[in-house]
Design goal:
single chain, alpha/beta, TIM Barrel, 8-stranded mixed β-sheet, two-stranded antiparallel ribbon, globular, disordered N terminus, disordered C terminus, DUF692 domain-containing protein
């Protein structure tokens, strides 16, 4: 756990490629046995309350509205969790992604608002946003483009999806210069040494070494630099394919319902 500087993301060690068990994603596997990660990450979820001790601190599940007001509520929960337990807290993308309605923030914008307000890190789970964004790499990267890249401390992906999403993993890691770990989730704990001997782990170290190389810093955000071969490439899109311009916050008609007062302006 961390000392009084529990909110400082810069003090986190670089872990590199790390295997974690699906049953205990907060523990990394090593030859000497499981060890805790130097942060505690909480997934944003509108449909359930996380188990203890988060339940006591949250006290409620978030209403299914991706507005700045709800982002502030989520940030308040994270701040209370951090102050009550004295460890560094990170927020994960939602385990139950949903397409935002007109006037709401998209997944990337909502996660950005929460992380900025709570002054916390971000853990991206690449297995989660695909049901909403589709299987297009551009769609997923479009959501990630809305994130404050310096706050992303870890990227997590399931071992069974490594081959299918290896290109996506490389593209995301290339945009994250302050990444601390690539977390690979295994179905069973196994042996720490045998874990990295698995064929599915081949090439991950090379991806890790290229972290942040596709980025250039611009006004606090990091965007992919166009390649020389494709100088006419379109700029990164902050909204995934299939979402209209009306999905931008503050546009579109105000939604009616029990949470209408939480909708943006």
């Amino acid at each position: 756990m961390l000392d009084a500087n529990h909110g400082d993301l810069h003090d986190l060690p670089e872990l590199g490629v790390v295997a974690v068990c699906a049953a205990s994603p907060g523990l990394m596997l090593s030859a000497s046995g499981p060890r805790p990660l130097p942060w505690h990450s909480v997934a944003l979820d509108f449909h359930r309350i996380d188990p203890e001790p988060v339940r006591q601190l949250q006290g409620l599940a978030l209403p299914p509205v991706q507005s700045r007001g709800i982002a502030m509520i989520a940030a308040g929960h994270l701040l209370r969790l951090r102050e009550g337990n004295r460890f560094l807290v990170a927020v994960e993308n939602t385990a139950s992604p949903r397409a935002p309605r007109p006037g709401e923030l998209n997944d990337g914008q909502f996660l950005c608002e929460v992380a900025q307000a709570a002054d916390c890190g971000i853990v991206l789970d690449l297995d989660r946003p695909l049901p909403v964004c589709g299987n297009s790499r551009r769609s997923v990267l479009g959501v990630f483009d809305a994130l404050p890249a310096p706050r992303v401390i870890a990227v997590r992906i399931g071992e069974r999806n490594l081959e299918r999403h290896r290109a996506l993993l490389a593209a995301v890691v290339g945009r994250l210069p302050r990444l601390k770990a690539i977390l690979v989730t295994r179905a069973d704990a196994g042996d720490g040494v045998e874990t990295f001997a698995s064929p599915s782990f081949e090439g991950l170290e090379a991806i890790w070494q290229r972290r942040g190389r596709a980025c250039r810093q611009t006004g606090g955000r990091l965007h992919a630099s166009p390649s020389r071969k494709d100088a006419s490439a379109s700029p990164p899109m902050p909204y995934p394919d299939g979402f209209s311009r009306s999905s931008r916050p503050g546009s579109g008609r105000r939604q009616r319902g029990p949470y209408a007062h939480l909708q943006p302006g």
